[in-house]
Amino acid sequence: MNKKILDLFQSQDIITLEELKNHLGFSERKVREFLSELRDAGDKNGFQIITVSKRGYFLQIIDDTKYQSYLHQFNNDFQQFIAKKEYRISLILFLLLQNTGFISINQIAEILDVSRSTVINDMNDVKKELKHSELHLESRSHYGIRVSGNEKNIRQMLSRISRKVIENQNVHLEFFEFIEKLDFDLVTDHFISLLNEYNIIMTNNAIESILFHLKILIYRILQKNYINEIKINKSLIDIKIFAITKELLSFIENQYSIQITNDEIDLVASQIFGKASSEMVPLDQKMKLAKSIREALIKVDKDFDTNFSEDTVLKENLLLHLHPLIMRVTYGLTLSDSLVKSVSVQYMNAFLVAMRFIDYHEELNEYQLSRDEIGYLALHFATHIERENQAKMQSIKKIVFIADSMKSSTLLIKTKIQSYFPLANIMVIPHMSVAKHDMEEIELIISTEPVCLEKGQNKVVVIHQNLDEKDFHKIKNEIIFSGEQYTNNVLGLQDLFYEDLFWVVKNGDYLDLITKMCERMVDKGYAKQGFKDSVLEREKRFSTVYDTGIASPHSLQPMGNIDSVGIVLLEKPTVFHDKEVKCIFVINVKKGHLLLHQEISDFLIKLMNDSNKIKQLELINTYQKLRVFLKEFL
Description:
There is one protein chain. This protein is α/β, with parallel strands linked by helices. The chain is 55% helix and 11% strand. A 4-stranded parallel sheet has the order 6-5-7-8, with helices on one face. Helix 19 (408-420) links the parallel strand 5 and strand 6. The longest helix is centred in the middle third of the chain and has 24 residues, at 371-394.
């Protein structure tokens, strides 16, 4: 990404923040993070990113030799990656499987930036890989090559190969931030106008659901991520549904300067048809579906100690989602969406809940749903969790900020805190006067230095002098994790790693290693009986091994007696489902600690995005060194 930004700077004299957002497809906050990273890198690599007030930014090269060396590093990294034959073959397979039409050898060579002869030499290995999945290459003169065979086998292989390619790109899921800032009023008005024009009846909740999916569509396309859809029999969908879909998406194309493919049009048409046709579902069937959702959610709540079954909005959204979902799988329509591929990583807890919900829903359980269908379903649970977190944040009304009131920075920090908690009353008190104040009724205490209080010590969050994003993350965690389910202090991630759950092994089979760790966790009282079988069942359904060499196996439901994470570090990597495994984190949390599970997954995402830290982790050979690593990293 840094290379792409530098290329943009070199293409024009001054570039605005808005132009950077549009070119990169990221939020303003994320773009600013990229610029900050470049500024830090520039100090050592002969360049500066200069800010021009009210105009934008420009690149100033101080030392061209150092700068060219820095650019060369990016090119070398890519070339070394492509030079690895195994990865190159995966990339070729990905291009072939993702492309429904023909693609030429020259096009593949151009995309990979390798010679035509290199691609031709790789084709024998490509054919062998395809043969293992009972697929073959079809060649046509003047057109190129494409994959042929059973569509189910293509989908399964694409799912496996795409994880090697797409997840390795470390795409961040900033979906909720994106939709929060997206101005969608004109699209909403136009959609409602079209519904009236075509005399299509749809409830407000159904309209909101369609708008939600349209936001996903825009988010994906802005990041150059496209779906690859299996065609459904279009005779099932009313012709006026296609008409309204094309008009609506044409409006969106003009509004957001994007191009929408025919596959995307088919998908949106099927969603609109599903929502519109759900209005025609007999009331008794709709009530039956609503009842099955409620019963499944009650069972999920019992497993996770949550309150999903009490969320009316969630139940209505699931009702609207399940009807077209069941229709899709009934008629053989499955989808692959590069956005939801990251849901299982970044919203691990929501993905886990969605899997459990499917287990408890009798009708859904009859179908073999793809990882991507589960990911779409998980977005509803992720939204519920985000909504609950926001409600907790907004419920804070009494805050004490302990700082030197004479410092000019204190007012700035207070203003920042007020922006996070607009409804709260914030009182600033100096460190010297802390003992004079009663903190019993205070809901949150923020301090720039460690403090010792007789009452309210568990509500204290110590921040830096400038209140950065990490500080806000700490504050947010304090609020989210300080519910009745938890003890006084926020559970620290460092406290989840125990010496008797830390192993360094020379090598071994992946499933054997996690089996032994699970047995150890049960024998030592960390986890309940059945934990091992549940973890292995989770791996059987969808592997938790990622392309960074990190695996995060966990049970299908909370089975912990003691919140803990077992670590297995391998001196020689093992292979599971064609992926190298170097570091295994066996996650074990207690019932009711679903948010802690998410905090662990956030830690793993941060680790997976830092190749240097992964290398450091691989060199650790004692528990003491692990503790030092965790302290520095967290």
